[in-house]
Amino acid sequence: MTTPYQQPQPLTTSRDNLRPVRTLNLLSYREIQHLMSANVEVRKLFTLCALAVLNSGNEADDVSSLIESYPDFEIEVKPQSRGPIMDVRNAPASAFVDGNMIRGIQEHLFSVLRDVVYVNHALTGVYDLDSRRGVTEAVFDILRNANIVRPNLKPDLVVCWGGHSIGRNEYDFTKEVGYQLGLRGLNIGTGCGPGAMKGPMKGAAIGHAKQQLALRRYIGITEPGIIAAEAPNAIVNELVILPDIEKRLEAFVRLAHCIVVFPGGAGTAEELLYILSILMHEHNAGHPYGLILASPESSKDYFEDIDAFVRETLGDEAAQYYEIITGDPVAVAQRAKAHVDEQRRHRLALGASYGFNWELYIPSELQAPFEPTHENMASLRLDPTVPSQELASNLRKAFSGIVAGNVKAQGVAQIRAHGPFQINGDAEIMQRMESLLASFVAQKRMKIDYSNYTPCWEIVASK
Amino acid sequence: MTTPYQQPQPLTTSRDNLRPVRTLNLLSYREIQHLMSANVEVRKLFTLCALAVLNSGNEADDVSSLIESYPDFEIEVKPQSRGPIMDVRNAPASAFVDGNMIRGIQEHLFSVLRDVVYVNHALTGVYDLDSRRGVTEAVFDILRNANIVRPNLKPDLVVCWGGHSIGRNEYDFTKEVGYQLGLRGLNIGTGCGPGAMKGPMKGAAIGHAKQQLALRRYIGITEPGIIAAEAPNAIVNELVILPDIEKRLEAFVRLAHCIVVFPGGAGTAEELLYILSILMHEHNAGHPYGLILASPESSKDYFEDIDAFVRETLGDEAAQYYEIITGDPVAVAQRAKAHVDEQRRHRLALGASYGFNWELYIPSELQAPFEPTHENMASLRLDPTVPSQELASNLRKAFSGIVAGNVKAQGVAQIRAHGPFQINGDAEIMQRMESLLASFVAQKRMKIDYSNYTPCWEIVASK
Amino acid sequence: MTTPYQQPQPLTTSRDNLRPVRTLNLLSYREIQHLMSANVEVRKLFTLCALAVLNSGNEADDVSSLIESYPDFEIEVKPQSRGPIMDVRNAPASAFVDGNMIRGIQEHLFSVLRDVVYVNHALTGVYDLDSRRGVTEAVFDILRNANIVRPNLKPDLVVCWGGHSIGRNEYDFTKEVGYQLGLRGLNIGTGCGPGAMKGPMKGAAIGHAKQQLALRRYIGITEPGIIAAEAPNAIVNELVILPDIEKRLEAFVRLAHCIVVFPGGAGTAEELLYILSILMHEHNAGHPYGLILASPESSKDYFEDIDAFVRETLGDEAAQYYEIITGDPVAVAQRAKAHVDEQRRHRLALGASYGFNWELYIPSELQAPFEPTHENMASLRLDPTVPSQELASNLRKAFSGIVAGNVKAQGVAQIRAHGPFQINGDAEIMQRMESLLASFVAQKRMKIDYSNYTPCWEIVASK
Amino acid sequence: MTTPYQQPQPLTTSRDNLRPVRTLNLLSYREIQHLMSANVEVRKLFTLCALAVLNSGNEADDVSSLIESYPDFEIEVKPQSRGPIMDVRNAPASAFVDGNMIRGIQEHLFSVLRDVVYVNHALTGVYDLDSRRGVTEAVFDILRNANIVRPNLKPDLVVCWGGHSIGRNEYDFTKEVGYQLGLRGLNIGTGCGPGAMKGPMKGAAIGHAKQQLALRRYIGITEPGIIAAEAPNAIVNELVILPDIEKRLEAFVRLAHCIVVFPGGAGTAEELLYILSILMHEHNAGHPYGLILASPESSKDYFEDIDAFVRETLGDEAAQYYEIITGDPVAVAQRAKAHVDEQRRHRLALGASYGFNWELYIPSELQAPFEPTHENMASLRLDPTVPSQELASNLRKAFSGIVAGNVKAQGVAQIRAHGPFQINGDAEIMQRMESLLASFVAQKRMKIDYSNYTPCWEIVASK
């Protein structure tokens, strides 16, 4: 992400003491004790996330380079019965104006404290994270504690997915869709980084301003593994950090009143397979759920390829859960509005919560973290005898592993040590998967070194 | 309490379904399950408290007669993911206007649900109620959950204590003090029944209106044992129900930025000895705490007797913790304002919370419920060899037992079965206690049948 | 009016400089010049009204005694481009708390400045006060400038009329009606003094508090001639001072969404005849207008007498414009609510203003000040040949003259100089009028020296 | 101005009825009559301005082409006692979303109604527009009526001037300055078109969002002659239309707490000479007034040329009233903040209004419209014997005439008819003026056909 507003300022500011303005200023002694007794692991995570947030608006794709840039950065939480004080030293100067930390960054910093340190402890021992219900409770409590789920709001949240490094054309399209959504009074939730996660917010901000709306929500939903790479953009005014990828995905689908997917890479495919696997589950039969795949005319191939892949692997009936709209931001917004309205009617009739979709059934296999080891990747069942809902879930895991093997620290290390993942499966499915991934590579949608790329996977047809 | 506004209306209204407007409309499934799985005991308590609240404004001093008056009253909580719904049947008609429940009563009803049912379960297993810290945490969490403790408010809360059946003269005086407090922008917390618990609120409401203040707080702090007898008056706009007497007392002293004590009976003496026992504790040395004993000219004997009793039993140094103001409501309000200002300065300097006095040390013996059995009463150490802070605490228990023996169901039963409590102690202390109690009887300050009264206590001098 | 809160304070406070908090802090130089160039007459009027407002809450029925009590009282307006500053000296101490003027009184003071000085000049030369439309424009502009007429409010204003010196029974009844109106979300406008002008506000304040309403309006509508005698009570939170009696009456009937009349004296009869004369006018045929005559059971004679008088003089069809409700505050409030709802529907259908009843036709003869000279009184046409709408208007003038002759400075002087007014008219009408006045005297409803009273009128039957 | 969000939509929407949401919904009959009785001239002006506002966001530099594009456009005001209704037909479709007019455009439309039609009439006959004071009163009343001048706001308004067709570099610089101003809590007022009038608002919007400010003001100050060419951009949330150029200039300088001038053309030179002529006036000696000339590094020549021209024609002491900052947006914002703070201190000390600079003396010659006829242009006294404050004023008129001769309908017509304006003056002054104008032409800062341009002026040295 670039901003035109960067000044040649000193790199860091020496020091700032901050008292939170909202959520955390009313902790009990016990809660402050929890904060203070956080172990080294948690403190390290907290420091990293805090630095990511303080660096917001500067270019930084890479966690390690970020830490190297600010080797003296320190952040300390000091308990007081009036609420904890944060002592920040040697932070990026861009977070400050004339010596005072920018209010929005200050808020993000306290969101990090709240979610990384506090939630970490508050949740310990309370939830049965081995049960479906327990995981959902944890996700709900984190979102409620972050004031993301609120009482008395009408459904209006459109979650936008898509790549964080997309072309100008696609970025402008996401902005335009966001603008049309904003004009229709809809709010935006995204993964909170650049690209398709920023465009819709930026567009919506203009739409909201033109409509002079009172409530303007730009919700960033992230997790510690990617906050450094995809730091909350300047527009995010509500930030929540879920503990891991799966809880973040669950947060997306339970918060959304409609999902719009923009073009992306393997990660976007993973997200789409995740929600499809849910919607195809028999327990969710009859539950309305708006899912729109939207791209500019120039990128129509992307969703055509995806659509073909879905139909060929999961069957045509899998395609009923989404609609594809190409090159027409107004139509996307009008359909999204219609879906949101339908959610309102549906939930009202059920007595269901507007703010959190308790009714959606998410199978345990989608809640449990998938670890992309060679063994796990090899044992994925990818053949037509597997029921298609389950096959969708397995395909999602395959894509998840590929994303990890390409860009995540742990995955890359595994590939280096043991060579490409071996993915087994039905010959036809395998071939389709291979050609979809090839098209991503051809369209430069994967975050890899294209000049010198060896795929991190090998497809081994099972027969 | 009487209201001039009662109409000859039908006794009950048939039915009403209510959805909470505030706190409770964002519960998780787990929390709703807790609500629904409450045992018979809790449900009974809930029904009783709900009925008390719905009957607010009608004369009813007596729990049993209340239940007899509304034998068909039912209240049921139905879970929904949008939040629980209350189904109320055969409730007192006075709670309704043209078929709709009065908003204030509705709010009180949901305070009851929140504090009696929800808190009951939410706290189970979370706190170590055997530790000083654990008890204080529980009190804090209940008050925070009830939105009584809030962030970002300046100190302004005057807690008023005093009898619930006081004379017209004294009642008018409490109103006048409340008016002067209100004119000075101070808010009021009381035990939430009639008499000295209503007068200051009523007066303050007029003072607040004249000053056109935005934030007008009339906080009622009660517990299940007395909510039926002392139902929240119509002015209370924030209601919290603590689990027992000791936690309610702790709530009072930790919330207050100044305490004003008006004349009352043995109960008021108990409260005064409770706070004195705290302030005299060495751990609280140097902590400022405003404590004003205020009465109209016509009742000046009351605090003169109390003052004499304190000085003679606990020593003159015990009298340094309070000041007595007679017949001058303006002076009371000016002193209260000065105390509140001092609290603000003190807490600001400490970095201490404005909303909850964590710094005050409350010894465990004052947190543990005192059960007024014959054995416990007989074994109270009431002699000059006991350190005076401890003696204050023991005297408080003696008064607590007498209140129970006079008016509380369990205490009265014990007296009937085993005769009066035997209180042992140093002859001089015993004599002073006896004469103080005699003066309460003479001034008709005890809730007893004066025409036919046998004291529930016998003082047995130890030497 | 008495308040239980009066302290033995010094009589006056030495000095206070006040800057207005609302309306007046954005005047142009021209407007400030107008303020400063007010002539002696206007300044005298302003000083008197200011003193009345500052004395609010103290007993003072009498303008002259008020001025005598505060001979050194001074109030000066100093222009600044930030807005005028008021310099107040030797004002009643009861208007201050610890040296600061009570906010509500401060607001009233600026209402006086706004309406007496500013309006006085702003209106000069703008309106054609000889035309019906011009007078109504002036009334509208004064009310709009005082923020009494506001956009975007739903109809909810019940105007209450009635005596300012009524019995305890009647006062309690007005409070009870106010309470029931308040419970139903209705706001109150009155003449802003004691008695039936305070009771409904006091009751409504409790009803509003119980319903936790956000908008609570207690509108006092007065004029310079009576503000000293009927100073705004402590509950009034919106105050407007119209230039004279007739404009004040017009303000009442154009603001009201329903009028409730309580018992009073000749003044109340005058008001009733005023509104009847309007409603009976052919131009108002078909316009709904709620008019309720309400009294406690113990005062049922009052409206029975009035009703009989109306039917006998103006005919039974005149009685169709009001309904009489006795002893049932709930019924009064329910009917008032129904009338208000009807107004809303009616005005919505017409595209008519919710805040100001432009559609009501008020004949010029009711807008023009009636001067109660012997000549004017003698020449009133009071016989059955006069059309009944006009007869109502003439009877209203007769009662107006009697009120003046009894209590207003100028009227009393005339009676002293020339003896009782001679009222001519049809024998039967005259007899009915005489007996109605006699019943007022018998019920002590006139503000006269009963022990030594000679009527200020003589009825001279015309045939 | 271009927007990336334009859709291929139908050109116009058929019809919409609108009721104003704010200011105008509480008019008296008289005021509505005024609205309705507006003459043809005023109605034509109103229709044109309304169309300009409805077309906001579309490219349209040219009034006549705008009207040609929407030949069927109609707008009609219908009076109702609830407030006027606007009936809009065949308006640009871009003003609507799914059939509903965009709220911001709706507000602008009612600003037009308010200022063009209502003010037009309300002011007729009230002000003495021949007196300095009278003109200022009129400007104040229009701004107050538009809620631009408000009570109780702290000084925070930075007025930005500069060209509407500037280069990308310069536009980005204005955005960056706006961003830095916004980060410091400053609000923005401009002439409300594109270029330097939009950039600062757009930047400030991001700064305000990052600081999460509650009050975000983007004030557009325009006049009927240019609203079509410079329609309010989408960010403007407060719009006011002054009657003519001189009143608009007066509004700018009396509202501003600091002025920042960006590069522009002859118009910007005119504005700068206008404010210099004021600040140099002896009556304004000692009054602080912040005036910053700011440009990116790449445009530093512009203000260097201007500065040289000022020093050479008006003397070095004229340069003391401004400071030039090049290439440093942070410094611009910090200086602007310092000026604003100084204004606050200065006005507080004076008791002066925060919202409107009454104290600034504006000579009559700057208030009176200057008509750029050949005669007026030729008779301008431009020689060193004229006092420099007056010379500044005369030079301002010369530039004003040149702007008119280049782009304004009337001026262009004059040039066609009579050839270039003949400007007389001292040889040296004339030469400097000529070279400044030549540099504007060289930098393409004038809105002319550069390929085929004959200057509209000829400089005729007087000696």
Concise structural overview:
The structure is a homotetramer of 463-residue chains. By secondary structure, chain A is α/β, with parallel strands linked by helices.
Overview of the structural elements:
- With 463 residues, chain A is of the alpha/beta class.
- Chain A has helices at 29-36, 40-54, 63-69, 103-122, 132-145, 168-183, 199-210, 224-227, 245-255, 266-279, 300-314, 329-350, 364-367, 374-378, 388-407, 409-418, 427-442; strands at 12-18, 74-78, 85-92, 96-97, 100-101, 157-161, 187-190, 218-222, 238-241, 258-261, 291-295, 323-326, 421-425, 457-461.
- Chain A folds into three domains: 12-122, MCP/YpsA-like; 153-364, Rossmann fold (3-Layer(aba) Sandwich), CATH 3.40.50.450; 370-461, no CATH class.
- The first copy, chain A, contains 17 helices and 14 strands.
- The first copy, chain A, has a seven-stranded parallel β-sheet with strand order 9-8-7-6-10-11-12, sandwiched between helices.
- In chain A, α6 (168-183) runs parallel beside α7 (199-210), α11 packs antiparallel against α17 and α15 (388-407) packs across α16 (409-418).
Rg from Cα of chain A = 22 Å
Sheet with the most strands, sense and barrel status of chain A: 7 strands, parallel
Could you name the ranges of chain A where pLDDT drops below 50 across 5 or more consecutive residues?
1-11
Number of helices of chain A: 17
Query: How many structural domains does the protein architecture of chain A include?
Result: 3
Helix content of chain A: 40-55%
| CA distance, first residue to last residue of chain A | 46 Å
CATH topology of the largest domain in chain A: Rossmann fold
- Proportion of residues in extended strands of chain A: 5-15%
Largest interface, and how many residues on either side? A-D, 33 and 33 residues
